[in-house]
Amino acid sequence: MKILITAFEPYDHWSENSSWEALSEMLKAYGVPQGVTTRRYPVELADLKARLYKDLEHGFDTVLHLGQSPGASSIHLETIAVNIAGVTYNEGRLWGPLVEGGPTAYQTTLPLDSIRRELLEERIPASITYHAGTYLCNAVFYLTQHWHHVRQRPCQVGFTHFPLMTQQVVEHGREMPSLTKQELAKAIAIQLNVIRNNASSHATVIA
User: Fold this and answer.
1) What is the model's pTM?
2) 118: which residues sit within 8 A by CB, 6+ positions away?
């Protein structure tokens, strides 16, 4: 089984991104799982699309994107990607559809209930949420599903939002919810295990 896991580079005033730090920690703690490819993506839409489409050409059975969600108090397992381009961090305001004439949304077929259950059993807070917003996190989620839909290549695609790391909150002097880097790394490993044990079909199109 070939799996692509991606995370984002730091953005705005954050010197670290919990998604990338967690992914790096997962690789250090558990090693590189067989069949897994990892990437760190930029927070600029044009560069993101170019990097993403190049990677997808290699053909994956599952693509799991990770992102940071300051203020989240649990790991968010996102359900739906919408065809909306909102604000991007290095480009100012960018409104309109991500894909002209594309479906309104795609729904993931990852086993979110199973993933959430496993995370909670390991005492890692997790929630199933509606969609990944209207920024780059949503963009990478939607574009990945649309790329596979157009080419009729079955692929499970999901997006997980991580809270801030505890070290980020401490370093920035913020009163915000957080999880440790180790907890987030473990959460990735758990998701991988569930995905491998519950291989499914490609995303559902929402017209």
Assistant:
1) 0.91
2) 190, 193, 194
